[in-house]
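Ticket reopened. Same input as before:
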Amino acid sequence: MTVPLRPPRRLIEITVDGEAVRVPEGDTILDACAAAGKDIPTLCYGDTLTPKNACRVCVVEVEGARTLAPACSRKAEPGMVVGTATERARHSRKVVLELLASSVDLSTTPRAAEWIDEYGADPERFGPDAATVAQPAKVDNELYVRDYAKCILCYKCVDACGDQWQNSFAIAVSGRGFDAAISTEFDAPLTDSACVYCGNCVEVCPTGALSFKTEFDMRAAGTWDEDEQTQTTTICSYCGVGCNLTLHVQENRIVKVTSPHDNPVTHGNLCIKGRFGFQHVQNVGASDG
Amino acid sequence: MDLRFRDAEPAAEERAAIDALLGAPESAWEGGARTEDDLRFAAQPAEDRRDQLLPALHAVNDRVGWISEGALDYICRRLNVPPAEAYSVATFYSLLSVRPRPPRVLHVCTDLACQARGAGAVRRDVEAALGPAGTSWQPSPCLGLCERAPAALALQAGENPTATVYGPADFSDSSAFDWLSPAGSVAANDPRNVHGAADGPRENAKLVGGSQETADLADGSRETAEATDDPGKTADLADSPRETAETTDDPRKTAELADGCREVAGVFGDAPVRVAVPQAGDAGLVLLRRVGVVDPASLDDYRAAGGYAALRRAFELGPGGVIREVLEAGLVGRGGAAFPTGRKWEATARQFDRPHYLVCNADESEPGTFKDRVVMEGDPYSLVEAMTIAGFATGCSRGYLYIRGEYPRAIRRLEHAIATARVRGLLGEDILGQGFAFDIEIRRGAGAYICGEETAIFNSIEGYRGEPRSKPPFPVEKGLFGKPTVVNNVETLVNVLPILKGGAAAYAAVGTGGSTGTKLFCVSGTVRRPGIYELPFGATLGELLSLAGGATGTLRAVLLGGAAGAFVRGDELDIPLTFEGTRAAGATLGSGVILVLDDTVELPPFLLRIAEFFRDESCGQCVPCRVGTVRQEEALHRLTRRRSAGDLVVLREVGQAMRDASICGLGQTAWNAVESAIDRLGVFAEEAS
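Engineering reply: fixed in the latest deploy. New output:
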């Protein structure tokens, strides 16, 4: 399969941590950092979405700017001098990690523990009475679970559900400030909302707040083991579009379905059938065993 | 958009309120009754009217007091907006409710200026009478009535929604709550009874209590008599709408205009605007020249007092000439950021993308700020004229005037002024016969400080959550509806009038090199004569305070620039009140807040209120501000109970991250005042090490 090439872009030069980096015009600082081999933490950034720059964990110091800049969304400009590991940038990242880890359950956020360690963040410093978003998980359908105690309000699910991908507009951010939450209208259950169960919100969720019901149940039972899982990418057989499916299999059972984000057909998105319609593959179990 | 609705039906009055705003639905596709025709034709793609979402939510909230599922659903059908998004917008604003509540809600200001003047007692009285906050009353951020602190504002939903201003509020007498009994609230819904209440200066006098002076001021009849000395003049005012009657066919409209000329309909208990301007009538005033002197409802009076001379001058100069004058005058923004206005105008005018938009930011919500309210209430035509000039200079044919929802009188005054200007050809297709087309649309905020941020205001007008956008792109390139937009504060805009009338050189001769012209200062707190003062830049803090009669007790500190500003000590009175002078002193002029604190005001609770304000008003978009403001408040709570070096470090580190990494000015300044209180005033200093 060929990926359509983008028209050639002029290269511009910026300085990242004292090192000159040439990137195509229009690229972000994050792209430039990646080109320079810098590992910048990101949470709300999604490779298939327009950057929302809400989490501020990717901030870097741009020379001459009053405030730090979000690497994920700020475009690189010729001559820009960027510091990714300056004291100010590291301080803000550390505090952002502390603020998040003290208010949200990051236990299923990939790399969170590593970053907390790397930046010397101490989420305990705000004391035992620090406000959190702890709340029971919303289990209102058989396909996926919304565990908002793990939600960092990155807006990615809202963007995926809305005009960036699915155009279902089932969810949005309600309320304001610390009380803001992802919600349907009047906090109605998903089954009574515009949700079409494409699961594209689950695909982009960076913290595991949204997860397959299978994964949620297996985690609750203590049987979820990613090291034991294999991933097999295949083509969905439901219709002729040809979406790539990546089947996550543990103990010979499909436990989760994703789609490669660089797949030009799906960009990581699927429909309810591709995402959740896998039970028929393994329903033999009920009768024979 | 293929939307899914949950089929909740609106009540008849909800539907009527929405239809009154949007017109009747054209087909069942838009929420109308289904006819056979609807089954034969597919829905026409609805015209994009997303920007009517907030006005529609207001319409229901004004009529019923809250927004039910049925009403939200109907709004969504009418405007083709996903219900989840409409819900997300409705829950963003503190004046809107998506839960049932009584039609009358009392908003008790507990913010800084009121806290310094006894808001705690008012709150306790209200709580004792009405129970815990939430339904019939709620604590409110600054209502912008700081000169009459402690203040409260009752908003009454109904067919003719009304507002009652309490300032100074005194609810120690339980009879002040008569209107809240079930019978009372029904009675208040009846327009006849509402007028009865309006005529009752006795009731107002009882509510405002206290000194004879305020009781007199609350007396509406006296207000008009005082504002216009000449009885003949009052007769003239009543005449002018008749003039308009000839040009407008709609009798209802004329009646409204006639109402507005005498009193502001639907706003009770408010004192004349003159009360807020101790210098009223002073010959040296520039921006406040007409406030409290000229009838704010009369366009003739405005013109007689020099109005619309600046617009004529603008037409002589041409757009480029106006911008040159503004640049040469050295005018910088008065909303707090002090950006050169001429440069903003020039950059907008240069943009090829069309149309250009003008947004006047009258979402004045910085605690302790009330200058824009006083200008709008006392001299509304000056803002209409100034916006027209700004539109002319920057190539806009449409201006949006975004006024905060807590300013009912300013909104009504401007509505009236805009309608009158339109009738007289001073707004519309061909202004003053010069071939320039410009009109102004008022948008009402709904209780969100953040909407005063220059990009959040766009989202709010467009019908989205009032969350700031990330910059770049800047508004001059991509602003309202993605088009080049110039955003100016009210005070900034009215400064353009003296610039054009007297010339840039004369304007720049006033003030200092870095800060030209005059500035409106919002003096409040424990000071003898609170109010709006106009002084040339360069006056010192001490001079301003002596003009305001000094602190009522021993001066302890002054908060400059509001909650986002900084404290200075009582012995730093020689700080010059200029942008450069306050900066050099490590403070900020901000929006011109001068909040005076004497030794009766406890500082830790005051700091807590600042922290609470930012926690409440954070939009929640970015982590440093959303969680940081909560952690700041928690640390201050702990410090108030027990000094601890660790908590001071937490404050500093979180504060630094908020300042460096937040998306917008709210988060970036949320720690300023607390930091200055610790470093400059030495709050929490003892035992801290």
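Residues 309-329 of chain B form the longest helix (21 residues). Chain B touches chain A through 53 residues (CB under 8 Å). Please confirm and we'll close it.
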